[in-house]
Specification:
CATH architecture: Orthogonal Bundle
Helix content: 40-55%
CATH superfamily: Winged helix-like DNA-binding domain superfamily/Winged helix DNA-binding domain
Number of strands: 3
Strand content: 5-15%
Radius of gyration: 14 Å
CATH topology: Arc Repressor Mutant, subunit A
Low-confidence stretches: none
Strand order of the largest sheet: 1-3-2
Number of helices: 5
Shape: globular
Length: 100
């Protein structure tokens, strides 16, 4: 159970910003592909989603900027992954809530 007394204004603002960043169909799809501890490059994500690489980079930048994703450079590649694996539960909740 969440102890709402421990949630200060800064933490609530941070949570709201993360949710706003996630609230886009392509970004939800990106998170879905990164579930389970997967680490993917921009190229891999853009191929999976069949969208332009520049569009993919734009969405990844927003998610990283708002604290949803992290990245790690390995040679020429930058791998993106969920900052908190528990974010997968938000995606699961969305899938459950949008079922007919």
């Amino acid at each position: 159970m969440v102890d709402f007394k421990k949630l200060d204004a800064d933490r609530l603002e941070s949570a709201a910003q993360m949710l706003k960043a996630i609230a886009h169909p392509m970004r939800i799809a990106i998170l879905k592909h990164l579930e389970g501890g997967k680490k993917l490059t921009v190229s891999e994500i853009h191929e999976l989603l069949n969208i332009e690489q520049s569009t993919t980079s734009h969405h990844l930048g927003i998610l990283k900027d708002k604290g949803v994703l992290c990245s790690k450079r390995d040679g020429k590649n930058t791998f993106y992954y969920l900052k908190y694996n528990i974010l997968s539960q938000i995606i699961e909740c969305l899938e459950t809530c949008t079922c007919d």
